[in-house]
Amino acid sequence: MSLRWIAAAALALLATTPVHADTMVINVNGVTFDDKGQPQRFAALQIGPDGKIKALFQSKDKRPKTQYQIDGKGRTMIPGLIDAHLHVMELGFGALTLDLSETKSLAEALAKIRAYAAAHPDRPWITGRGWNQEAWGLGRFPTAAELDAAVPGRPVWLARVDGHAGWGNSAALNAAGVTAASRDPAGGRIERLAGGKPAGVLVDDAALLVDRVVPPPRPDDRDLAFDTAQRLLLARGLTAVADMGTSIEDWQTFRRAGDLGRLRLRVMSYAMGIEAMTLIGGPGPTPWLYDDRLRLNGLKLYTDGALGSRGALLKAPYADAPQTRGIVRTGETQLKNLMSRAAMDNFQLAIHAIGDAANADVLDAIEELAATYRGDRRWRIEHAQVVDPLDIPRFGKLGVIASMQPIHQVSDRTMAEARLGPGRLTGAYAWKSIANAGARLAFGSDAPVELPDPFAGMAAALTREDATGQPFGGWLPQERVDRAAALAGYTSGAAWAGFAERKFGRLAPGLRADFVLIDVDPLLAAPAALRKARVLETWINGEKVFEAPRQREAESR
């Protein structure tokens, strides 16, 4: 079965229900935010033929007659959800390749790898993602020798769950020319055995040594991956995303979808590096394309790695590895030069910083550059996971957006405790403190690192507990946010962070009619119910782009 045939079948699932004339959606429990950020209730919504909202109505209001009327059946309507930080193409490819994210042990992972290789004998490389030595309770990184035992002949190259390390077998390392004589590249680390032989895991920029020799996907592979990602996201109620790290090939994929009328999702793009930024945007950010479905906003840069692979840059050594403070992926001078190059052409900056030292470095750079590059810059720090409490007030002072992922706190809790030690947890995943300092919050998932599930993220933001209710009362509970802030982080806050607040992110006259019908009220439901929220319908630009299967079946009977 060809990839083109599969892609055509996938596209059929993106069929839409368009609105071609004035339409009134009635009988809804509407929840949105007003222009001051306060929650607002409504009972009906009018959509114009251009896919924009004409008016909101309360139940007592007199409504104009419209050509079409849709009964919301009392369901809750919220603005289309926005993931402020994910990786669209990686999400799609992750769904189409080997996924180890649910494995609980090294043995289980190796069995899955062995079975996958046997099921795909025609693939010259076995690729995938999702391994996590912490979830396996391994206490170390896996090795090439362990992969060799599962797949000895063909190269195997697997990204860690956070994307900040790769695990390869001997065939993959040999193909890349990685030997005992290979030096650690700037911004990366080759894990080694006694004597210097590569152990099999390459951290951060060292992974590029193998990435370069993996056969690249073809355009039709990319189209299928993007279509797959769109379907996954629309089913979660996501109508817009910020794609963090768009390559020129990714951009071309988005443009092909737009040109062919297959672009449903709204994508706020941040280029991976200066070269991609200039190739895509040229002299500045692109205009909004395809009815506000695609725009290059700015540039994504990295200052450090991730906590899980001990690449996050800390001010003091790791509690569980005192020989290291992490990895500098972009030095102070280079960071300022790259930021300045982007800012002079009005590209927005989105800077990955996880460790407290990395966050301090980015804040220092912003403080220096802000004196030259004035105006509405909306500087973004992506993740801001571990921040020195002394640096938290600087987020508000400098007008820095904290683009954070609440579900990371749930997944990372025990690992973060081990990496930092109990005395350095203040300022970790500090949503409330950063917001209280006057900073804007934008929430996301970092998918495919986590599932792109905004409702699980909201529940985590409210409780700082996992799905089983642990730890009871929440981890560092003083950092919980309220319900309105949690919902805003995935709607109006995420739109503002991407310069899209005049396009979407709320339900208000003049904005795009992007909304979701769900089975719970996010401002009232218990966190457990919110975590299990069911998306019934997803609408973008006045078009229904997803409907829950059971609902379709029930209405057809």
Concise overview:
The protein has 19 helices and 24 strands.
General form: globular
Gap between N and C termini:
33 Å
Major sheet: arrangement of strands: 8-15-16-17-18-19-20-21
Largest sheet: 8 strands, parallel
**Regions with little confidence, pLDDT below 50 for 5+ residues:** 1-16
The tally of helices reads 19
What number is the mean pLDDT? 94
Q: List the quaternary state of the chains.
A: single chain
Determine the strand fraction and express it as a percent band. Answer: 15-25%
Structural class: alpha/beta
| Helix percent band | 25-40%
- The Cα radius of gyration reads 23 Å
Strand runs, count: 24
Verbal overview:
The model is unreliable at 1-16 (pLDDT under 50). The chain starts with a helix and ends with a helix. The chain has 19 helices and 24 strands. The strands form 4 sheets. It has an 8-stranded parallel beta sheet. Strands 3-2-7-22-23-24 form a 6-stranded mixed beta sheet. A hairpin with a 5-residue loop joins strand 4 (44-47) and strand 5 (53-57). With 557 residues, the protein is of the alpha/beta class. It is globular and about 80 Å long.
Write a concise keyword list for the protein shown above.
557 residues, 6-stranded mixed sheet, 19 helices, 32% helix
